[in-house]
Design goal:
This protein is α+β, with helices and mostly antiparallel strands. Helix content is about 25%, strand content about 30%.
């Protein structure tokens, strides 16, 4: 049985899970000024392995830079803190959350000279979507994806995800499992916490960078795995109506992994079942993260 998380790395020290607390007036709670990453560790034949750790740490620091924040630690220190947190909690499979935030309690939008705190949490985590293995149903949101002139979509800033929260809640109230957001220009962007892919006549198609998307690390992994399998991968703008006539569709993300989409706006995608290419990529992705594919073995950091 998987152990529960007992400790959180908090500003360089391990504290008991229940003692990792901040004040209710903390700036990042009041204004959404935090930045974070989502990372997974998987149980392999060689023990726990963290998937694409260096890439996630690099993006963590890029998010901080975009928002003008100095994390106060080096990338190596955060890398080591993540490995140590998984090891300290004796976890074989888990979701890892590095999170940076302003710890000042002074009210005011601009946190001038405010100190930064960094935490790393690692918690047991299963499928993000309960219906993952059967495919999920989505609805196009009435809310548009944030535009790069409003907030930086490429940064994992806490406040950015209010856009995701409101879209996802709307979709669930309408009976769907998840939302799909369009860009301000009406092109397909992504899910609230996932990138999106379509299969069209044997080709893999996904929204391009200029569609106001987060450049997902899982997204990048899938494109590389697909190309290694001989699939053509195309990044471009995608019109809304193309979703309905695609042969297959799926979400990707650290939490979602590869989650098939079988229906959008009450329209079946393909025959309304998980398609062969989606199924093949799901199996190939599992082989990679579980350490059963030597070609991509350098994506794994073993905890030891």
């Amino acid at each position: 049985m998987q152990a529960n998380a007992e400790y959180i790395w908090f500003d360089g020290k391990f504290v008991p899970f229940s003692d990792a607390k901040v004040h209710v007036l903390t700036h990042s709670l009041q204004y959404g000024s935090g930045f974070f990453e989502g990372i997974r560790a998987y149980k392999t034949d060689k023990g726990a392995a963290i998937f694409r750790l260096d890439d996630h740490v690099d993006r963590f620091f890029k998010s901080a830079k975009i928002y003008g924040i100095n994390p106060g630690y080096t990338q190596k220190q955060i890398h080591d803190a993540i490995v140590d947190t998984v090891r300290k909690n004796k976890l074989q499979e888990c979701y890892i959350r590095p999170f940076g935030f302003y710890r000042t309690t002074k009210l005011g939008v601009t946190p001038v000279d405010a100190a930064i705190s960094i935490i790393v949490a690692a918690i047991p985590f299963g499928n993000y979507f309960a219906n993952k293995n059967n495919g999920i149903k989505c609805r196009v949101s009435s809310w548009q994806r944030i535009h790069t002139t409003i907030l930086p979509p490429e940064a994992k800033g806490s406040g950015n995800y209010l856009n995701s929260v409101i879209a996802s809640l709307e979709a669930k109230k309408e009976g769907a499992d998840e939302a799909i957001l369009l860009s301000i220009n009406g092109d397909v962007a992504e899910g609230p916490g996932e990138n999106i892919f379509f299969v069209q006549k044997g080709r893999l198609v996904t929204p391009s960078k200029d569609s106001d998307i987060l450049l997902g690390i899982t997204r990048d992994s899938i494109m590389k795995i697909a190309e290694a399998k001989g699939l053509e991968v195309e990044e471009r703008k995608i019109h809304r109506e193309e979703m309905y006539t695609s042969d297959e569709a799926f979400f990707s993300g650290t939490a979602a992994e590869i989650t098939p989409i079988i229906e959008i706006d009450s329209k079946k995608i393909g025959d309304g079942k998980i398609g062969p290419i989606t199924k093949m990529l799901m199996e190939a992705y599992d082989e990679v993260v579980l350490g059963k594919n030597e070609e991509f073995s350098d994506w794994l950091t073993f905890v030891g």
